[in-house]
Amino acid sequence: MLRCGKLHNDQDMGPGGTKSRRDGLFVFLIACLSAVGVLLLLPYRVDDAFIYFRYAEHVAAGHGLSFNIGEEAIEGFSSPVWTALLSLAVAVVGAKALSHVGLGLVLLAMCALVLRREARNSEAPGHAVVTAFALLLCPPMIFYAGTGMETPLFALVVLVFTAAVADRALLW
Predict the structure, then answer these.
(1) Contact 86/59 with Cβ under 8 angstroms?
(2) What sign has the CA pseudo-torsion 158, 159, 161, 166?
(3) Strands, E, within the chain: which ranges?
């Protein structure tokens, strides 16, 4: 990969990419620690999350995008993408509490992986684990990953867009 005028190899130094596996294991362990933090915060919810839960339950049950069953469809939520993802998760898992926590943790882990990839490909590859570590132990990210709000989704979209711009994958 050509970045900043230098040729970078996607393989880390060491036999068989052991540094890469070790970094990945470290990020995974930190993600598990974040999951414990989310589970400890499980009783706490942001009140707006219940709006998403209600819509997700109704969509998953086949009642459409209505806040109350039998009423006309109305957009009473602020993130259509999050509502769709949460509805899909509720339809698959069947329990709103497990759905939003699982979805939040998956998105938080994906954010860490994007950060790790970008840091590894930068001119300071030693920061790969530190950046993922910082995100996964950031109290607001841990909190919002388990509350049912779209914060981890928004963070992932911003990180992927930023990575795409940095990789010059997006042409203006």
Answers:
(1) no
(2) positive
(3) 2-3, 6-7
Residue 21 has pLDDT above 80, yes or no: no
Per the structure block, which two tokens stand in for 121? 């490909």
Task: State mean pLDDT over 77-86.
Answer: 91
Q: How many domains does one find in the chain? A: 1
DSSP annotation of 123 reads S
Helix H segments across 127-172? 128-136, 139-145, 151-166
Higher pLDDT, 29 or 11: 29
| Structure letter (DSSP) for residue 16 | G
Residue 6 lies in a domain: no
Is residue 15, in this structure, part of any structural domain at all?
no
What would the pLDDT profile of 48-61 be if each residue is shown by its tens digit?
888 888 999 999 99
8 assigned to some structural domain? no
Q: Which domain holds residue 131?
A: 21-163
Calpha distance 131→134 (Å, rounded): 5
Task: Note whether 105 and 151 are within 8 A (CB).
Answer: no
Contacts of residue 76, defined as CB under 8 A and 6 or more positions apart, other chains included, come to: 51, 55, 67
145 belongs to a structural domain: yes
Is 42 strand, coil or helix?
A: coil
Cα–Cα distance between 86 and 53 in angstroms, integer? 8
